[in-house]
Design brief:
- By secondary structure, the protein is mostly helical.
- The chain has a domain of 114 residues: VSR Endonuclease (Endonuclease, Chain A), CATH 3.40.960.
- Helix content is 52%, strand content 6%.
- It is built from 15 helices and four strands.
- Strands 1-2-3-4 form a four-stranded mixed sheet, sandwiched between helices.
- A hairpin with a 3-residue loop joins β2 and β3.
- The protein is elongated.
- The termini are far apart.
- It binds zinc ion.
């Protein structure tokens, strides 16, 4: 067989005949391995590569076949692994996928597909650099919401979706302090209740307790009006809106500053417990506080 492989065909006809005679032949595993060994390290001309690519075009592989290919590729180097890529090359690859060239351009992905993509991305680590870039991509005119007027219905949907997200992912230090105090006093509470503004702690019947971080809520006492990003400067307005809305619905809103809890926690926590007990005893839920 190895002789045959090296044979140069005299005419196209002869080549075709050989190819015809080879069709339908089933090779043993060993033989296929040998053939593959004979092919490794060969440099195919661009012309040949093009031809090979044409042979395979339009072929539909069965799921089983795809699986086999996938398995055979596991652990194999791509040939470019570890080789640094030039900036121009990166730019070129990135440009290739931009706008109309992107496989998802103009497509509306189903909820199911988006969920799958999101599942696939879970647990992936994103460097700070990439994060900063992503943030810039979505800013200003490029934001999907820029210049749009959202209907009340859409706004409500966003609000509901936002309530379901637990923010932040970890309880902060002052929150933990309050939580342990409440547990000690035997007061039952709920964390990150799905209400407007997502109260850090909710106590039946109607107490919404917010523990405002000094940085995120623009605490003037601690950090002053330094060069904060705009969204933090607006934070007090958002907080006021949340207070007002909740109060209109009959909730009692208590807001505590992070610095107050950490600096003078015993005194403050005791008076907090007193207030909570007072509200619970009188059941102030009936009277909406305006
Ligand atoms: Zn503060």
């Amino acid at each position: 067989m190895s002789l045959m492989m090296k044979k140069r065909y005299e005419s196209l006809d002869e080549r075709k005949r050989t190819s015809e005679s080879m069709k339908g032949l089933v090779f043993s595993e060993k033989h296929r391995k040998n053939l593959s060994i004979a092919m490794t390290g060969r440099n195919l001309s661009n012309e040949t590569k093009l031809k090979l690519s044409f042979i395979n075009k339009g072929k539909r592989l069965s799921d089983e076949h795809k699986k086999k290919i996938g398995l055979s590729l596991i652990g194999r180097s791509t040939g470019r692994k570890g080789i640094p890529v030039s900036l121009e090359f990166k730019q070129m690859m990135s440009d290739r996928m931009k706008g109309k060239n992107h496989p998802n351009f103009g497509k509306h992905l189903s909820v199911e597909t988006r969920r799958k993509i999101s599942e696939g991305n879970k647990g992936k680590k994103v460097s700070d650099e990439v994060r900063a870039k992503l943030r810039l991509v979505c800013k200003g005119e490029k934001s999907y919401i820029y210049g749009k007027k959202l209907s009340e219905k859409t706004k409500n949907l966003i609000r509901i979706a936002r309530m379901k997200q637990v923010m932040p992912f970890k309880d902060s230090k002052p929150e933990l302090l309050i939580q342990s105090k409440l547990i000690n006093e035997g007061i039952v509470f709920e964390k990150h209740k799905r209400l407007l503004g997502q109260p850090d702690i909710f106590i039946e019947p109607n107490i919404c307790l917010f523990v405002d971080g000094c940085y995120w809520h623009n605490c003037v006492t601690c950090v002053g009006n330094k060069n904060y990003p705009d969204f933090i400067k607006f934070r007090p307005f958002v907080d006021n809106y949340v207070n007002y809305k909740l109060m209109m619905d009959g909730f009692i809103v208590i807001r505590l500053w992070e610095h107050d809890i950490i600096n003078n926690n015993d005194e403050l926590l005791n008076s907090l417990i007193n207030s909570i007990n007072y509200i619970k005893q009188r059941d102030l839920s009936i009277v909406p506080v305006v």
